[in-house]
Amino acid sequence: MKNKRLGSLALAICLAGATGCVNSPTPSPTADHSGLTLKLIPSITTLRLGQETSVRLAIYGPGIDHIVAGTEGVPDMYSIPPDAQGFVHAFTFEPKREGDFTLGPYTITFNGQKLTSNVIHLQVLPDWDGKFGPVYHVDKTKIALGEEFQLVLETWLKPTAPPQKNFSLRRDAGFTIPMNGGGGGSFRINSTYHYDRQVWTIIPDQAGVFKITGDIFQNFPAGEVPPDLSVEVTPAAPSR
């Protein structure tokens, strides 16, 4: 496993205003720093050997200043919507083996408050097997109601084939797509193949078996082989 720029994570924490650091953004003197959370957010949770993904570390809560991309003395950081009341540092995860990886929890101290991040799990699949066409997969097969999973569509095409069409999910198919969770993708082109990946974050609306077929897509192309996957959604645990 190789974490590019992981060493700069300490710099990001200092820039966040952690105890004992300098040149950190100064929150409003009247800010209330109770209820802050530290969150680890992967862009994708399933990738293939030879691929990489970005992971964001963010502090959310009242009184957190908005950091603008390109601010002097704030390298490798970029802005998120001001109303999200947080800021982000990104590092790159590039695995060197197949299997499951766990990142976190990370702990920092911000203005005297100890913050501990969540844990994320990343699954690394084998490299491409040389077969052309689409492959659908999910990062989880069982979740609780209110939790999310990622649906991934990977497509390998011959260099002479027409470009892959972008797929869109229906908005009335029994699930919710959170902000920035719909259809983000990437592509790779070389002399051997064209590769395209689309990723959707899905939150089912009810407990039961959530089926992933061509019906959840808008205008699924005729002649294409639809997915045939399912995710078990268990009832949410009762709140105490």
Number of DSSP strands? 18
Order of helices and strands: EHEEEEEEEEEEEEEEEEE
State the helix count. Answer: 1
Category by helix and strand content: mainly beta
Helix content: under 10%
What's the alpha carbon Rg, rounded to whole Å? 20 Å
Could you describe the 3D structure shown?
This protein folds into two domains: 123 residues, Sandwich (Immunoglobulin-like), CATH 2.60.40; 106 residues, Sandwich (Immunoglobulin-like), CATH 2.60.40. It starts with a strand and ends in a 6-residue tail after the last strand. The protein contains one helix and 18 strands. By secondary structure, the chain is mainly beta. Strands 1, 2, 4, 5 and 6 form a five-stranded antiparallel β-sheet that branches. The longest helix is centred in the N-terminal third of the chain and has 7 residues.
Brief description of this entry?
The chain contains one helix and 18 strands. By secondary structure, the protein is mostly beta strands. It folds into two domains: 2-124, Immunoglobulin-like, CATH 2.60.40; 129-234, Immunoglobulin-like (Sandwich).
Mind sketching the topology for me?
Blueprint: E1 2-4, H1 9-15, E2 37-42, E3 46-48, E4 53-60, E5 77-78, E6 86-94, E7 99-103, E8 107-110, E9 113-116, E10 120-125, E11 133-138, E12 142-144, E13 149-157, E14 175-176, E15 182-189, E16 194-204, E17 208-212, E18 229-234
Parallel strand pairs: 3-10, 12-18
Antiparallel strand pairs: 1-6, 2-4, 4-6, 5-6, 7-10, 8-9, 11-13, 13-16, 14-16, 15-16, 17-18
